[in-house]
């Protein structure tokens, strides 16, 4: 959850500014492992709560590749099986497109924004490619927590 990491960075900024307000904080240490474990546990709890609420509401979750059919009633087909209901929600999810090394040399050395949550330690240096809000948030978080971070933005053009 990016919000947990953002809040972590906010705390780091407060600690950084404590001396300006007369507080002495001689030995404050940050543990990436601790926040990762607590964040991951928090996300698991949230997922369990959401799934429990869906079950309490008697909503069926059907996982797979789905598409609407031409049937007269609202119907979807998921992996060859049809489902009809008065209300159907298709949560598409998504996965980032990762270029090959032949398209962009060294691409395999990088990770997607999903990989940020798998980091086992704070990188000493980081380069974030892109200028969307997630890229900017991750660059700010990593930088505030102590990673020497750079944000790469492709040259824009007026559309």
**In total, how many beta strands?**
5
Percentage of residues in strands: 5-15%
Rg, Cα atoms, Å:
22 Å
* Main β-sheet description: 3 strands, antiparallel
Secondary structure: helix percent = 25-40%
Number of helices: 3
The overall average pLDDT, rounded, is: 89
What global shape is seen?
A: extended
- The structural class is alpha+beta
Unreliable spans: none
Termini separation (Å)?
33 Å
H/E element order: HHEEEEHE
Strand order of the largest sheet: 1-2-3
Defining traits:
alpha+beta, extended, FAD/NAD-bd_sf, 5 strands, disulfide bond, three-stranded antiparallel beta sheet, two-stranded parallel ribbon, about 160 residues, 3 helices
Q: What do you see in this structure?
A:
With 159 residues, the protein is of the alpha+beta class. Helix content is 34%, strand content 13%. It has three helices and five strands. The strands form two sheets. It has a three-stranded antiparallel beta sheet with strand order 1-2-3, with no helix packed on it. Strands 4-5 form a two-stranded parallel ribbon. Strand 4, helix 3 and strand 5 form a beta-alpha-beta unit. Helix 1 crosses helix 3. The model has no long low-confidence stretch (mean pLDDT 89).
């Amino acid at each position: 959850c990016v919000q947990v990491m953002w809040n972590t960075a906010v705390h780091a900024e407060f600690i950084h500014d404590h001396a300006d307000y007369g507080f002495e904080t001689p030995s404050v240490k940050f543990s990436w492992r601790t926040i990762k474990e607590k964040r991951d546990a928090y996300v698991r709890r949230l997922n369990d709560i959401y799934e429990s609420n869906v079950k309490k509401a008697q909503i069926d979750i059907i996982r797979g590749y789905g598409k609407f059919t031409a049937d007269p009633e609202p119907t979807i087909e998921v992996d060859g099986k049809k489902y009809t209901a008065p209300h159907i929600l298709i949560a598409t999810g998504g996965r980032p497109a990762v270029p090959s090394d032949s398209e962009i040399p060294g691409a395999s050395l990088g990770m997607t924004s999903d990989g940020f949550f798998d980091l086992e330690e704070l990188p000493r240096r980081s380069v974030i490619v892109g200028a969307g809000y997630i890229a900017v948030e991750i660059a700010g978080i990593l930088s505030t927590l102590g990673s020497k971070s750079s944000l790469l933005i492709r040259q824009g053009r007026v559309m």
